[in-house]
Design brief:
Number of strands: 8
CATH topology of one domain: Alpha-Beta Plaits
Number of helices: 7
Low-confidence stretches: 1-26, 28-66
Length: 312
């Protein structure tokens, strides 16, 4: 509101723009336009990180104190063992192991082929004989295993322990008595008849027959009523033969206890004791029996030099 000179109230004057004088270049003023508010991306103000406060400091409302990370648990003993046993082989070590495996497989195949070639070269009767021997040996081992298991069970039983010990001692004494020649024996075996030919048989021929009987598994042997033991010997004497200091003469009647079939096959092997006796002109025959009797006994003498080793 402006007042005039008379001091009377007047209406508000209209403001007019100043008109430029003639000959004066009008001044152009920029027209102010209303500034449009430019959209600015909202900025998320992140609160500055603050150091963790102690328990006795005041905490911000709604915020919980951060928990310290739990210390790592030490590895257990088995986990350490597993880490130590974890394979750490290099590529060269792996290649070396594969080569060793291949070589071992090749050797196994070669051994199997060699065994197969050896068996394929045998005749049918030889294969049958070999199979029978293996089967019989397996049966014997099975029987021994069963006997030993029965003895073990008896010894483990408290009630029968003493009786089993006595029975075992008796059995061992009988076995030692048969093997040493102190006791007579009976069982399956063979009867062997040997006689001189045009010329008397030598002691070496009879000793070879004794060795083959032992190798074939004969457990008790006698010839012409004399029990043969580990110390038995044959020597030539004046056209005859002396056995353990006693003179014996043809015919020589042998009795042996053992597996009859095994003994019979062993004695008839080409180049063995009986074929050699026949080559020298002598007579030799074998008879397989289900049961034979070896009734000759020997009383062993006292050892001159050997003595017990006090359990050592």
């Amino acid at each position: 509101m402006s007042k005039d000179k008379n001091g009377a109230g007047a209406k508000p004057d209209k403001t007019e723009p100043n008109k430029p004088d003639a000959g004066q270049v009008p001044r152009v003023e920029p027209v102010e336009t209303p500034e449009t508010e430019q959209a600015e991306p909202e900025q998320v103000e992140s609160a500055p990180a603050e150091p963790a406060q102690r328990d006795d400091d005041a905490t911000v409302a709604g915020a919980e104190p951060a928990e310290a990370p739990a210390p790592a648990e030490p590895a257990s003993g088995w986990k350490r063992v597993g880490q130590l046993l974890r394979p750490r082989g290099t590529r060269s070590e792996l290649l070396t192991g594969l080569l060793c495996l291949a070589l071992g497989f090749a050797l196994a195949v070669q051994v199997g082929q060699s065994t197969g070639d050896q068996l394929s070269s045998l005749r049918q009767d030889e294969l049958v004989r070999l199979l029978d021997e293996v089967t019989q040996r397996a049966d014997q081992l099975d029987a021994e295993v069963s006997d030993l298991e029965a003895i073990r069970d008896d010894l483990q039983s408290e009630d029968g322990r003493d009786q089993a010990a006595r029975d075992l001692a008796q059995q061992r004494a009988e076995q030692e008595g048969i093997l040493s020649g102190r006791l007579p024996a009976r069982g399956p075996g063979v009867e062997i008849h040997v006689a001189d030919g045009d010329k008397p048989l030598e002691a070496q021929s009879l000793f070879n027959l004794l060795e083959e009987l032992r190798n074939a598994g004969a457990e008790a042997i006698q010839v012409n009523g004399v029990r043969l033991v580990t110390t038995s010997y044959f020597v030539d004497s004046g056209g005859g033969v002396v056995l353990d200091g006693a003179a014996i003469s043809s015919p020589y009647e042998w009795t042996a206890i053992g597996d009859p079939d095994t003994i019979d096959r062993a004695l008839e092997i080409p180049g063995g004791a009986l074929p050699r006796i026949r080559e020298e002109g002598g007579d030799a025959t074998t008879t397989v029996e289900d049961e034979v009797l070896v009734d000759a006994v020997r009383i062993p003498g006292e050892p001159e030099h050997a003595e017990p080793a006090d359990g050592k």
